[in-house]
Write a sequence for this structure.
């Protein structure tokens, strides 16, 4: 009895010890896996991320610039929507705001960032992005991170897919998703059609368009520049949604670019709204429709240029098409709701599965051979992944290290912030055979797609100060000049911590043209010019000049002030616009800083600008 | 007697003349807000150069100002070219007692010149730290005197003063001249 008790006690102790050890091991394993992931994405203060990530802003109409792997938001580049914080398209007379209003409005829906390429890799010059809502394309300069051109594409609604023609950015091509009457008239009984538009990357001029029946969706070019590929759904040409998925198969459209150029040169295109439009029914050899399961979505060329992969969306398959012969070489099943595909540098593809909320990794060669083990790995994402993008996956130099899952829903992933939840991105390590989840970071609504550029590609190109433009105001040359009975031109400079002139006088209703130059020369010394009650906030990076015309409001004193924290005297950095009544008897005279010699008062305008 | 050229003295003359075309003295300012991009000033015959705009912009906060006029710079060619001429003369003067006296005088004048120059620079530096605008917005920075060579702390800045290439050329010229005289030129 005694011995049995002792034995029992000993056994219990041993069992508990073993159990504890097991538990200990497990928790050590979990924490080391967390530490491993954390270490992969940790970028210490003062250190830089390895990659620039450019995420489309979706209905924010912008581009989010995010550091990868940290997921830190570095910048939002406003494009189709005003952004007062950076003085973008705010005032009704701002040239960019007028341009936006004239081309469709002050909002946009940006989906796919497409960087310029040289020899099949990103060269860091430009990034183009579509505005699906209003049929526009913008070009972003990657030296200044600002939109430099915005164009409206004729004959096209729903500018959805956009891609550059590899390998040297011969064209930017844009797909019209929303079909239109061929002659633009609602009374035309013929089925609606769409166009693919080819733009010159420098002039942004639409060089030609190719008509395609159906809704033209996502775009990519073959790596050799021969074909512009697009997925096309609704070959039914239906106008009601429930009739858009009746056919068993829709298509990948392959436009033969040299053949299209030749047709245009031979006058086989018809001018519509000033753009040559090729109708492939009239000009054979331009358009090849490769039948793929109905309502396909993503289309992605493999980095080696051999294949193009169409993702099935409603079909659980991807269709692998030979990029030269345009023949289907395989159609492997990958999972439910395949939307987009990206690639590593070891012959693997990664496809997003919207319904499964998964990324599936599969081997291209094995899938083509018909081997049964072409699926390499699956990883769960949270939730309903749309686009996914591996670093360099759209170039001829994929890096095979990180992959970003751009999820449509975040549900329980972040602290709740009201009914509208943050958008979720998840960073996945793809350097090994198995994918490993690294981190998750939220953004405002709503990134669709992303591209990544090595920091080295851009760092040396990015400008941090502007050279003074031809219209810049030089220090000592500031002036307030009446240019007409009701118009005044104010030429102003600013530098820590003062505006020159520090005051000017106008009459109510005067049209005031303000030319303002930040004459700072060192990086990050941006100043603002905010004018109360005049819908005005200008942001002026070092060396930058802005001209804007506004109407002076009701009589009174309006303090203009610096909105971008600059110096120990930031709060004191302000000046006055004095608005006199229309019928004032106060004499208002011109003023020139150059004549504002010390000790000599210039009539009409009190001493000003003598600070420096 | 065949007149021979004393090379060290000739070289000293060349260096002395060259200093007129070179920056003589410099300042390097570092602060946390200027990572990897210290502000640099240098003084040459024409005045102050370098990051003048930025430094002036900063100075207004603590009431520091650059000297408005530096007449000594306008006069600088006089002693420098005189010394150059004396060194050249010493280099070709041969071995006589008059030549030796000439060379000794030149060395003496050179030492005097450098001492006076150092004194003037130090006076300017003292003024920069002491003769300040009493209405400056920031009162927290106390009076300071940057040394001729070496660091000093001004507010959030560490200010390093150092002789620039022209200043080094002048000192080197003096050393060379000394070498020439000791070897009993030519």
């Amino acid at each position: 009895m005694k011995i049995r008790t002792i034995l029992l006690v000993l056994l219990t102790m041993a069992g508990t010890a073993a159990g504890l050890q097991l538990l200990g091991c497990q928790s050590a394993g979990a924490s080391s896996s967390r530490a491993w992931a954390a270490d992969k994405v940790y970028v210490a203060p003062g250190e830089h991320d390895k990659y620039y990530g450019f995420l489309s802003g979706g209905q924010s109409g912008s581009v989010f610039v995010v550091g990868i792997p940290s997921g830190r938001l570095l910048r939002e580049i406003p494009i189709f929507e005003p952004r007062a914080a950076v003085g973008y398209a705010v005032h009704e007379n701002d040239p960019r705001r007028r341009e936006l209003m004239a081309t469709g409005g002050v909002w946009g829906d940006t989906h796919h960032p497409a960087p310029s390429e040289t020899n099949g890799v990103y060269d860091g010059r430009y990034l183009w992005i579509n505005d699906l809502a209003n049929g526009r394309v913008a070009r972003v300069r990657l030296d200044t991170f600002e939109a430099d051109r915005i164009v409206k594409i004729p004959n096209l609604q729903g500018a959805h897919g956009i891609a550059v023609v590899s390998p040297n950015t011969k064209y930017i091509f844009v797909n019209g998703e929303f079909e239109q009457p061929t002659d633009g008239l609602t009374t035309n009984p013929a089925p609606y059609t769409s166009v693919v538009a080819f733009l010159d990357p420098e002039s942004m001029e639409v060089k030609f368009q190719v008509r395609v029946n159906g809704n033209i969706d996502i775009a990519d070019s073959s790596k050799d520049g021969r074909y512009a590929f697009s997925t096309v759904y609704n070959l039914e040409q239906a106008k009601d949604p429930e009739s858009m998925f009746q056919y068993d198969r829709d298509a990948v459209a392959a436009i033969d670019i040299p053949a299209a150029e030749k047709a245009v040169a031979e006058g086989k295109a018809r001018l519509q709204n000033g753009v040559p439009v090729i109708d492939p029914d009239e000009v054979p050899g331009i358009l090849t429709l490769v039948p793929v399961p109905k309502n396909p979505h993503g289309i992605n060329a493999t980095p080696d240029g051999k294949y193009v992969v169409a993702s099935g969306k409603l079909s659980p398959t991807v269709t692998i098409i030979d990029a030269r012969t345009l023949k289907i070489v395989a159609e492997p099943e990958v999972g439910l709701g395949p939307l987009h595909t990206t690639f590593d540098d070891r012959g693997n593809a990664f496809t997003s599965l919207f319904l499964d909320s998964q990324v599936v990794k599969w081997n291209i060669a094995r899938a083509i051979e018909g081997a049964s083990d072409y699926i390499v790995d699956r990883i769960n994402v949270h939730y309903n992944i749309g686009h996914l993008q591996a670093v360099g996956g759209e170039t001829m130099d994929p890096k095979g290290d990180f992959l970003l899952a751009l999820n449509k829903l975040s549900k329980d992933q972040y602290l709740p912030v009201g009914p509208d939840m943050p958008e979720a991105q998840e960073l996945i390590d793809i350097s090994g055979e198995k994918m490993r989840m690294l981190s998750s970071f939220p953004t405002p609504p709503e990134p669709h797609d992303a591209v990544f550029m090595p920091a080295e590609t851009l760092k040396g190109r990015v400008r941090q100060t502007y050279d003074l433009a031809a219209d810049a105001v030089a220090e000592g040359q500031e002036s307030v000049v009446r240019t007409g009975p009701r118009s005044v031109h104010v030429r102003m400079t600013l530098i820590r911590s003062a505006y020159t002139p520090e005051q000017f006088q106008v009459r109510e209703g005067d049209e005031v043209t303000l030319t303002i130059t930040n004459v700072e020369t060192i990086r990050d010394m941006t100043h603002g010019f905010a004018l109360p009650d005049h819908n005005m906030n200008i942001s002026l990076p070092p060396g930058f000049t802005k001209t804007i015309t506004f109407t002076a409001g009701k009589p009174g004193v309006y303090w203009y002030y610096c909105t971008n924290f600059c110096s120990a005297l930031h709060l004191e950095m302000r000046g006055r616009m004095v608005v006199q009544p229309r019928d004032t008897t106060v004499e208002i005279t011109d003023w020139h800083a150059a004549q504002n010699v010390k000790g000599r008062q210039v009539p009409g305008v009190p001493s000003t600008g003598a600070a420096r | 007697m065949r007149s021979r050229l004393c090379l060290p003295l000739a070289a000293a003359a060349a260096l002395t003349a060259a200093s007129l075309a070179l920056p003589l003295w410099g300042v390097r300012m570092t602060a946390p807000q200027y990572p990897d991009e210290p502000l640099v000033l240098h003084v040459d015959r024409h005045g102050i150069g370098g990051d003048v705009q930025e430094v002036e912009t900063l100075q207004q906060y603590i009431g520091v100002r650059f000297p408005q006029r530096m007449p000594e710079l306008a006069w600088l060619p006089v002693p420098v070219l005189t010394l150059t001429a004396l060194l050249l003369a010493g280099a070709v003067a041969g071995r006589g007692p008059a030549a030796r006296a000439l060379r000794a005088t030149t060395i003496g004048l050179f030492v005097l010149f450098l001492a006076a120059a150092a004194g003037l620079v130090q006076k300017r530096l003292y003024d920069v730290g002491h003769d300040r605008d009493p209405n400056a917005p920031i009162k927290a920075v106390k009076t300071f005197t940057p040394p001729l060579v070496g660091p000093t702390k001004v507010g959030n800045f560490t200010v390093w003063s150092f002789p620039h290439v022209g200043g080094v050329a002048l000192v080197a010229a003096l050393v060379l001249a000394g070498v020439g005289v000791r070897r009993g030129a030519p």
Summary: Residues 299-463 of chain A form a domain with the Methylamine Dehydrogenase; Chain H fold (CATH 2.130.10.10). Chain A touches chain B through twelve residues (CB under 8 Å). Residues 2-41 of chain A form the longest helix (40 residues). The longest strand of chain A covers residues 121-131.
